[in-house]
Amino acid sequence: MMxxxxxxxxxxxxxxAGAGLLAAQSxxxxxxPAAKTxxxxxxxxxxxxxxxxxxxxxxxxxxxxxxSTTVELLSQGEAARNAAYARALVQVVNxxxxxxxxxxxxxxxxxxxxxxxxxxxxxxxxxxxxxEGNTLVGGAPVLKASLRVSFDPNPVDSLIAAAGYRYWTxxxxxxxxxxxxxxxxxxxxxxxxxxxxxKSLADRGLERGIRFLVPQGTPADQAALPAIQNLDGKALEPxxxxxxxxxxxxxxxYRSVSGWSAWxxxxxxxxxxxxxxxxEADARKVIATGADRTADYFAKRDALPLDAGRAGVVRMEISxxxxxxxxxxxxxFLQTHASVRGVDVDVAMPGKLLLRVDLRSGVxxxxxxxxxxxxxxxxxxxxxxxxxxxxxxxxxxxxxESVERYLLRN
Length: 410
Prior knowledge:
This protein has 15 helices and 17 strands. By secondary structure, it is an alpha+beta fold. It is elongated.
């Protein structure tokens, strides 16, 4: 592999030195006759296929709030801020996909260095309240700095497509949380006056990109306790209808031999979606599981694939390659990019490289990622006409192939 790379570099040097030879090599089919056009995709289809109505594809809907998150800021230095941007990007991808493991994806990891370039705005703040999880040292509160980060949706969506993840559409339910807690003194309804009790669930829901509503605690709400204890979604529906909501997360949390236990029921539009038990030593962890399983269910049900484009081997043209250093930089960038499986050089000439690039992700996703990087600038794709290979069906009729064009940035 290394000798092959040296051979390519040596070849490029010779090409740059011999203008006459370069001109002879470049006089190939790079500029096909303008008069030749390929048959349209529709005319190339069988008659029954060409007349078939296209299948309508549901498009995901963006929610701008899901492209923002808050992370801890360890210090005010540039390195700490960039590290916070990287953590925020992973968190945003988690929110948009409904997953919790996107930070382990090689394509996601490879894009973390670009996180500062994708930030639309960020605001740092400090809190000193113990209710925010801070500690006291010598009687003085320890300040905790946080950073609110909002990202440009376009490169983030391209990153999700390049990583091969499905996109959890922004049209998400906001379940009404009907929760009773029994600490040994009898079950009590959690209302909007006891939000600190469900902080672990609310925080976990925000991390997963889903928000919960809480009943106000009116006498009618208090009358719902028996139905909550019985996990009876049908009986709760008339009470829940007062909030103009058809989605409910019903739960009962209580002390048990092993610590704390819960039963959860997810209900929507008059039907049970999921039911599960959980036991933990910590009541906060038990309560937080309601958010996790709810997010898991809706993300799996409602996530849609993004249009990443065609994957595999694509033709690529890189212009602006005017020196050996440019050649090495362009090839090195592609060979080490997480979205690229392999690179083969077809032609090297002054100012231009013609390549065959094997993409893990589709061409649309790769092009979207390149719009904000510092190495390649997308110039758009063009179609070139190529003669049919001898023996192919339709010999003599030109075929078309798309070429992805990029400019090597200075």
